[in-house]
Amino acid sequence: MTASRRPLLVAVSGPDTAGTASLVRRLAALLRERGVTVVVLPCHGCLLCRRLPAPPHVRKTAEPGRSAWARRATDPERRGPWPRRVHASLDAAELAARIAVARLLARSRARGGRAVVLTDRGPLDELVRFGLPAVAGGAAGFRRVARGYGLTLLVESGPETPGSLGPEGAAGSPAAWWDRCRGWSRRLPGIVWLDGDEAPSLVAETALERILDVMRERERAVAVPKRGTTGERRHVVVSVYDGADAPACRSGAALVAGKVARRLAEDFRVTVVTAGRHGGAEDRDGIRYVRLPVGRAGPRAGRLLFLALLPLAARRIRHDLWLESFTPPFSTSFLPLTTGAPVIGIDQGRRTETPWRRYRLPSLLVERLGLRCYRHLVAPNNADGSALRRLSPRADVQVIPSGVDRHRIDEALLGSGQFILFLGRIDTWVKGLDLLLLAYDRARPPLDLLLAGSGTPAEERRLASLVAAHSPGPRPRIHWVGCAGEERKRQLLRDSAFLVLPSRHETFGLVALEGMSYGKPVLHFDLPALRWMRDNGDVAVPPFDVAAFGARMTELATDAALRRRLGHRAGIAAQHYAWDETTGRYLALAHRLLDSPAAARRPRKRGASWQTTR
């Protein structure tokens, strides 16, 4: 058995013993859903701690800053250093023996597959609990055990965690616990800090991503066998124009492609092909990123160059499956004609009329011809799915919506808010910003309007002039705050009263789903692509009816009870669009195409490995 198939040992550490045990149960369930064999190993001290209770004279009754219970072996005032070292050595030896048994059990159950051993405490907790010096004998035993752990997830719950240290011997006050913990975390390998103040589902998703990243790195560390031999991980390529080097042009397609790539990397070798100002390749989080040097040409010419270079990249990169996120103006690049491997077209950027207006190119004709080349297509909503079936009758069209991170919604805050929020890419005509400003200027609702986002320099200049025209005077009520990072975006969503989505064209409306996950109503034009929100906390008005849009904007701004009812429904609806579920459907589709007998008979793509050789 190779090193990558050895069970991964993961510890969940932290002073809140109930919270770490709950997180272990959540992680075990999520890993089992992904076909990973999981063995959970509870760690509650050594045999002495479990069998020999502390005598009554050790109990603390009135000492400030301490837990109500302290183990005799962990209290330096009652037990000397030698008993503590012996106790720590016994604890470390028993922990090592129990881990060895759990690994054998996980390996036998996995039968060559992936396996994880989860412990609800780890060597870090024991080192902090005993409070031994770094050079002590007992500490050396725990440090040897810690080297066998692939990952330690340290759940940071703040300096004050009432009753969290448990009866098995707190190492003093919570602040003292964290001081020792920070000291030891710099000496032990594989420590990852998690924010325990977030919602449990978010903590579990973050922890799961860290575990999967370590598993991918372990698998990559093993030498890849020669092509054609058994055991080789099949190679999946995801192509999307928007990337990290083009923040002004970034859209929901980049977010979807990134989430899908991370999920596919659980079972496949994944390469992401994107645009950049400079060519090159890098490895990050177990995924290979290849940049095509088209960013210097600008957003419009860059997209055309990206579409022209994509077939060449498909000829040079060996792959078993290709996922192409469509890029305007032509959307399709006739990629299936350049490769013998299956190609899945993802309709995240196809806008039938927009490219014709902007590029003055025959995109409709090219799109109709190009879509007929695809046998597998994915649409984010039923309306676009029906359109794709008409344009490509022989294709297998799947409707897979976008996803969202789950958030804990405070029922007491539903209906509250300080402003009306538009969040998205600055594209005046496509996003309907001119319609929004006109409706706000005419209706004059009692709440200010905040615009958050960035775009090309030309679009930003156009928006600045529109804002100045519709909000003159020393105290403007329309505020453009520019690009919002992740933390800033979350704050805006939490503080907003409701979202507006005045788009003329949308493929799904990922921003609307993000707002719904915070319990915020969404006001939008009744476009076919946005009807997945119907009766789910949304307010739809006839397309491009500026007067109706302004009237409903005023109604939402003045009626907190209405916002509360709609926000409650929006928060419930958003729970059905978790990333774990939506990306799992992409993973199932990839397995269906690659595990079929036709895929096994298909000859592999020949050519140079280019920049994706690992």
From TrEMBL:
Pfam families: Glyco_trans_1_4, Glyco_transf_4. InterPro entries: Glyco_trans_4-like_N (IPR028098), P-loop_NTPase (IPR027417). Keywords: Glycosyltransferase, Transferase. SUPFAM superfamilies: UDP-Glycosyltransferase/glycogen phosphorylase. One of its GO terms (molecular function) is glycosyltransferase activity. The keyword Aminoacyl-tRNA synthetase does not apply. Residues 251-407 form the Glycosyltransferase subfamily 4-like N-terminal domain. Residues 59-83 are annotated as: Disordered. It comes from the Bacteria. This is D-inositol 3-phosphate glycosyltransferase.
